[in-house]
Amino acid sequence: MELAFAFNLGEQHIDITYGDQLAGTISAQNGQPQFRVNPERSPEEQRVIMQKLGEASQAMPDTLNALVIEFGAKRHADNFAHAIAQIQPDRRRQIHLGSGNDVRDGWLNVDFQPWLAETYHPDRNLLIADLRRGLKLPPNSAEVVYSSHFFEHLSFAEAQIMVTDCCQFLKPGGRFRAMLPNFSELFDATTNNKTETLKEVIDTGFLDFLPAQHRVMGNWMSRGIFEFGQHKHIWDTENLPLLLRDSGFTDIMVSEFDPDIDNSRPIRVRWSFFIDAIKA
Q1: What pairing do the DSSP bridges indicate for beta strands 21-29 and 170-181?
Q2: Over the stretch 177-214, which tens digit does the pLDDT of each residue have?
Q3: Side-chain half-sphere of 25: how many Cα atoms within 13 Å?
Q4: Hey, CA dihedral for 148, 154, 160, 161, is it positive or negative?
């Protein structure tokens, strides 16, 4: 007999059957698949089921991790309206997209961490949201929206939705500020074999995940562009302003590092470009 899997969207887990009877479930816990075997199955059946689940986990780890992410995304999407209702207007005047570990006082920090149980964490003013779908905040309610190395994690279509939403929830005159990876120097260094630039990158530890002999131009380019499969789109000083203009922003300009708002990690400051825009 083989295991069979079925989505249980109501309970937000996967039902596992073995021999046409419930064998257990797969759910998300701390960002990892969590297997639970039906305690009503005999000890021998439980042993066989766990063995087959282990084989399935090894055979399709990316699939199971993707399911964990999507179930978490759905749970937080279902809770989104209730979470927004808990946030006082004065706590969502400044929006920090893709906050990650850079949780800031005085900002509504928004990040996609689908493994967390709660959608809103008032102690950190942290909102868990699937930003691939945009961010549906009340219109004309925020004064500034900021992100650092976030938009490259969205596809072009997802970024269109997000930028449109930003324009909608910002007040007239509200500020859009983005700090993004600057790939132009990466491409220039690779094309022209600028080994001194590569050495500068190596000295930052950016390629420490590789053995020393593999810290070469091509692997720097691969890490920078793909970021272990997490990046979806390359933005530059031409295509992001075009997208902002299409969405209703004006006064769009390439800017410089602003210590009052930008992420100050030296590697970010060194390898980033900066875009400012104003909602008309």
Answers
A1: unpaired
A2: 999 999 998 899 999 999 999 999 999 999 999 999 99
A3: 12
A4: negative
